[in-house]
Amino acid sequence: MLPFIRSDLSQFTAYKPHPSSNTAEPVAMQFDRLDTNESPYDLPPEIKEKLAWTFQQVIESNRYPDGGHETLKEAIAEYVNESANLSSSDFVAANISVGNGSDELIRSLLIATCLGGEGAILVANPTFSMYGILAQTLGIPVVNVGRNESNFEIDLKAAQSAIEETKNPPIRVVFVVHPNSPTANCLTAAELTWLKSLPEEILVVIDEAYFEFSQTTLVGELAQHPNWVVLRTFSKAFRLAAMRVGYCVAHPDAIAILEKVRLPYNLPSFSLASALVALQNRQLLLSSISQTLSERSKFINVVSAHPALEVTASDTNFIYLRLKPNPSQPIDVALKSLNQTLRNHGTLVRLLPGGLRITVGTPEENTRTLTRLKTALTNLEY
Q1: Of 290, 263, 337, nearest in space to 101 by CA
Q2: Read out DSSP for 216-244?
Q3: Rg (Cα) of the chain, in Å, rounded?
Q4: How many helices (H) and strands (E) does the chain have?
Q5: Helix, strand or coil for residue 356?
Q6: Residue 236 — φ and ψ, nearest 5°?
Q7: pLDDT per residue as tens digits for the range 300-345
Q8: CB-CB contact of 273 with 47 (8 Å)
Q9: Which one, of 269, 359, 366, lies nearest residue 58 by Cα?
Q10: For residues 126 and 322, what is the distance between their CA atoms, to the nearest angstrom?
Q11: Cβ(173)–Cβ(121) under 8 Å?
């Protein structure tokens, strides 16, 4: 470590992007990239043409982007109301903050609540790793609890005990994903009851990155819970992963604080234009969801029939695949071997301590992956 760097950073592990995102290392083969929960479908040509025209005729590259995001915030508020069957006036631009991906918004929330030794965060693993990574980079303690191994419900007894017993600093933020990644399940009634019971001194962050696939949202609860924040993204169903646009829905007072701590001009003009065009064409872009859900059902039906595999229902655009115990080989060793075999044959999936997270791809990608998975399991003698 360099002598001027914080000593605790030596113990951190950086978030690992998928191999094809590293331009310094050419990818040797054409992978089916089912490891990052992106949409398998690029923007339609007519949308790309519209964005190309915007870049040529509207965007001035020598000027800073719109730092207030007002036009986009108004469009997002309209979509949030529409998507939750709410009145057109329930959410307005003052309820919205826009970030460079949800990651920036998560970081801003941490800065606004826990920095300077004022708070810790609670996460239930397995879940999205960036909550813990971002907290640690800011020197914020992370309190981890587990989940039920069958339905992936948060260990609510352990979570409540952590809330009551963590004092220096106290837990200030609870992060949940609805539906969760990597386990693909929505919050249960018991989890919701527990979240509603938390005091207003605790911020509840509900990450709805996969809302368009689950069609289950908690934005309608925000009026009764000013300590709740809902995160969403344009990176999944809206097909804009390359543009890095996320947004937050919350009480105007919370949004005003986020606006104080976010970086100025945090979104490039082209990203702002892309998100706006995506919302204007949302019926077209979101029309691919039905095919993804159909493919998801087919994929689950096939893998469920294999005696070595265990897969639960999914409310997202991915599935969480686990191996059943086998006395001849430890599960973690078998998972690593399975992941490597899939990679060697051209499919990238996400290897996790308890299983594999597999994004639902195009019909062709899914067919190839199922064939490769069958071969890999045969080689494992599972």
Answers
A1: 263
A2: ---GGGGGG-TTEEEEEESSSTT--GGG-
A3: 21
A4: 13, 13
A5: strand
A6: -105, -95
A7: 999 999 999 999 999 999 999 999 988 888 999 999 999 999 999 9
A8: no
A9: 269
A10: 13
A11: yes
Q: What is the pTM of this model?
A: 0.93
Three-class secondary structure of residue 206 per DSSP: strand
Q: Are 361 and 347 in contact (CB under 8 A)?
A: no
CA gap 183, 206 in Å, rounded:
15
Strand order in the sheet with 203-207: 96-100, 245-249, 228-233, 203-207, 171-177, 120-124, 142-145
Q: How do residues 147-180 score in pLDDT, each as one tens digit? A: 999 999 999 999 999 999 999 999 999 999 999 9
Number of residues that make up the chain: 382
Contacts of 381 (CB under 8 A, 6+ apart): 328
Helix spans in 114-233 (H): 130-137, 156-165, 189-197, 211-214
Q: Enumerate the β-bridge partners of residue 170.
A: 167
Q: How far apart are CA 102 and CA 246, in angstroms?
A: 5
